[in-house]
Please model this.
Amino acid sequence: MITRSTLRSQIATALRDEILAGRLTTGRDFTVKEIAEQYGVSATPVREALVDLAAQGLLDVEQHRGFRVHEFTAADYRAMCEARELVVDGVFRGVDGAAGGPDGAAGGGTVLAGRAVARRAFDGLGPEVVRSVRRRADAAERAARAGDLDVLIAYDLRYWRELSGLLGNPYVCDFLDRLRVQCWVYAVPVLRRHASLRGRLWAGHNALLDAVESGDARAAREVVAAYNRHALAQVGADGVAPPEEAEAE
Model:
């Protein structure tokens, strides 16, 4: 039996996927009635699902008009990339960056907290977990090399969700997942302007997992930093125009 809460979750997931795929386009207005008719369900779970997506920053509530897909700017994208890098870097810095010695004198409680979170992640990497995350990494990298954006997004989100879940802190995990979804919402329409994405998409999932699995926090931080530089560059949000645009100018 499908309960209302289950239906609400299913609709929210389906609509999120539509937004990520670019089928629900940025700035488009739509109503609860329109979505309810599209999915053949009552208005109540649809309204609840739309409110959930608005709370995740993916939709704007339009007074007396319904909802609209939120339009993220390049400045938003840069800020989101910076935020996720700061969080992940802080976690790994807790392991290898305790400059104040074993008691973390230089970094105080922040270093100790970061070390504790990262230690939970490293300690949680048993063989079963590694195999599961590795499967996501392999699938994401295949899709990235092939330039298959839809498949990459699906596996990329699962990969990062599993990896973030090892931190043992659901608030950090949810925060990072929300940022990653929002980043994709901005990036997808920009990336789809290219005739081919083969060779353009980040495929360092296994390199990061290798660093985490070996407990090499410094290498993990370097991979994450490189990933964020790539994320900014591939959509021209680093202030440098992509090659095609630079040539056109």
Observations:
- The longest strand covers residues 59-62.
- The domain at 74-238 is CATH 1.20.120.530 (Four Helix Bundle (Hemerythrin (Met), subunit A)).
